[in-house]
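Justification of computing resources. Each target in the renewal requires a structure prediction run like the one illustrated here; the chain below, 248 residues long, is used simply to show the kind of job we budget for.
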Amino acid sequence: MIDCKLIRFIFFLLRKQILFPVILLCCMGSVHAQKEIYRRGHEDLTYYFGLTLGYNTSTLHLSKAPAFLQSDSILIAEPRSSGGIAMGLMATGRLSDHFQVRVNPQLIIGGSKSINFKLGTAKAGESQVQNQILPATLVSLPIQLKFNSDRIGNFRTYLLAGMKFDTDLSSNSASRNVEDMIKLKRTDIGFELGIGFNFYLPFVTLSPEIKISNGLTNLHQPDPALKYSNNLGQILSRMVVFSLHFED
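Resulting structure tokens:
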């Protein structure tokens, strides 16, 4: 049975965003200390599979509607970042010596989006500063093209670029349909760019990776009945993702 203290410690490192540098340093030390070549010919496989564990920080990019300048009901609309944990599967196919295609479906838990509003005029008993939290649980399907460097011993680096297709499972939840809250669309399409490192170990390939994942779809679903919605124009998703891939 897995030690609960170990699990809590791992998630603490994820929240502090220090797990991946630690793993990277440990693996680099292992590469220098170990001269034996592991998993020979792995990069020549036609396809292989793996698991993904990740942590992301997400936010929203806002543009103001004309009504924002014409009215003093809202003085400031500022997006706030938040963190979430991702778990997923991975399938990688070989195209050539240096190019691969990868599909990496993930479930992203947490990472709620929020916007901090400072009101120009507040109702009786209403705070002048309000934070609207939009819970999010995403099913994400990234499809990526990887460019791999030559392998040096038990180490290789790669660049990736691709598209993602996201579906927000929380879009119709009760907490997302309260009075005075803006509405976001359920689906999103975006692009991803990143860099990663392959560390070949005796029984698995460990691949730390960092990428940016930016939405291209306007998530704002205007609703004249919502006072916050009238002041906002385009809303785009922004995300930085730290992932750790375990490849067979």
